[in-house]
Design the sequence.
């Protein structure tokens, strides 16, 4: 099935190609594309204006990318269905798309996970294209959604993601970390550590299990489990979503640990926003903005089983009249050594359909251990 043409090319399924991706015949839209390769090293070079993908690797194993500088109009580095990958010392500026983006699509004609991946000592940003390389670091004119930049898993994720470490990375004027499994794969055993963020335009941490299920034969809903995120500092973060962790009814995200985290939000949320009910959006494209403004400013966790939050501080640059935390259909949640500001007449926690909840030595709330709660605010 096709739709109206884009630049003379019919638009195919799922909206591809579209007007910004199509080029004249004979002109490619990838700077470097590799498929079914082994033992590849890309090192010590620069890509400017790299097309839809500056580097697209599909089914590439034993793959090393080191000391690349990419300043591009679309995706920087896409790692699709690859195994045993090392990305290090790379700087990626991509204002209109993702910076470093593991995927696990059906591009090889089979389901294959992206696994055994390290992404270390990298920087991602969303400045105007070219301004990373010339050193001006120009910020774009205001537009809905702001710049992209970021490290993101997905969206294409038929094969899932396994055994992945991200460490010692800087996010500057871009979106936050996104772990997305919406196409039936398994996302598991991910460790993210030592991250600094500044001027983040959406959720600093986004974990989404959805049911878009784009792939052959409509695959079943996938799995997200065993995620550790630690030692994160984020400053001047947009107030719209907070930390957003959203599974599905009967398909919870499992075993998430957040520890040693400091996030400072811009604040400014209203009482009207605090009353909003957030739809599931289970079939939608997985982007924090699709959820709209969340009725809590610090964290919204829904359909989660096993959530440990330890030594987390959240600050506000301006008072916010939404609760700091909303937990909805969450089982086994433990909050220890939490520090958030108290806003007059505003609850810190709102619990809905929560089992086995504990909060200990956290300000400004008293210690509590609750076996089962239908609805409670405090």
Sequence:
């Amino acid at each position: 099935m096709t739709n109206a043409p884009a630049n003379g090319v019919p638009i195919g399924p799922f909206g591809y190609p579209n007007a910004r991706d199509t080029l004249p015949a004979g002109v490619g839209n990838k700077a470097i594309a590799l498929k079914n390769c082994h033992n590849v090293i890309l090192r010590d070079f620069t890509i400017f204006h790299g097309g839809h993908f500056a580097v697209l690797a599909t089914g590439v194993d034993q793959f090393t990318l080191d000391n690349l500088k990419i300043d591009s109009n679309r995706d920087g580095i896409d790692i699709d269905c690859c195994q045993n990958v090392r990305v290090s010392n790379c700087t990626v500026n991509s204002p209109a798309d993702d910076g470093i983006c593991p995927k696990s699509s059906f591009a090889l004609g089979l389901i294959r996970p992206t696994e055994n991946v390290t992404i270390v000592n990298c920087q991602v940003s969303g400045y105007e294209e070219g301004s990373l390389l010339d050193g001006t670091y120009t910020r774009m004119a205001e537009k809905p959604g702001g710049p992209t930049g970021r490290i993101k898993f997905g969206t294409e994720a038929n094969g899932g993601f396994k055994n992945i470490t991200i460490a010692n990375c800087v996010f500057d004027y871009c979106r936050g970390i996104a772990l997305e499994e919406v196409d039936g794969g398994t996302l598991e055993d991910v460790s993210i550590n030592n991250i600094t963020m500044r001027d983040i335009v959406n959720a600093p941490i986004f974990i989404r299990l959805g049911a878009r299920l784009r792939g052959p034969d409509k695959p079943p809903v996938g799995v997200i489990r065993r995620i550790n995120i630690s030692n994160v500092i984020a400053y001047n973060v947009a107030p719209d979503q907070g930390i957003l962790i959203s599974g599905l009814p009967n398909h919870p995200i499992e075993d998430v640990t957040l520890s040693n985290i400091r996030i400072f939000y811009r604040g400014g949320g209203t009482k009207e926003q605090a009353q909003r009910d957030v739809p599931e959006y289970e079939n939608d494209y997985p982007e924090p903005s699709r959820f709209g403004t969340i009725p809590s400013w610090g964290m919204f966790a829904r359909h989660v089983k096993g959530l440990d939050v330890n030594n987390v501080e959240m600050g506000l640059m301006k008072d916010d009249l939404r609760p700091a935390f909303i937990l909805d259909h969450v089982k086994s949640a433990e909050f220890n050594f939490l520090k958030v500001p108290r806003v007059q007449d505003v609850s810190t926690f709102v619990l809905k359909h929560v089992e086995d909840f504990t909060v200990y030595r956290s300000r400004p709330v008293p210690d509590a251990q609750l076996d089962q709660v239908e609805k409670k605010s405090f």
About this structure: The two ends are 52 Å apart (CA to CA). The longest strand covers residues 299-316. Residues 111 and 346 are 47 Å apart (CA to CA).
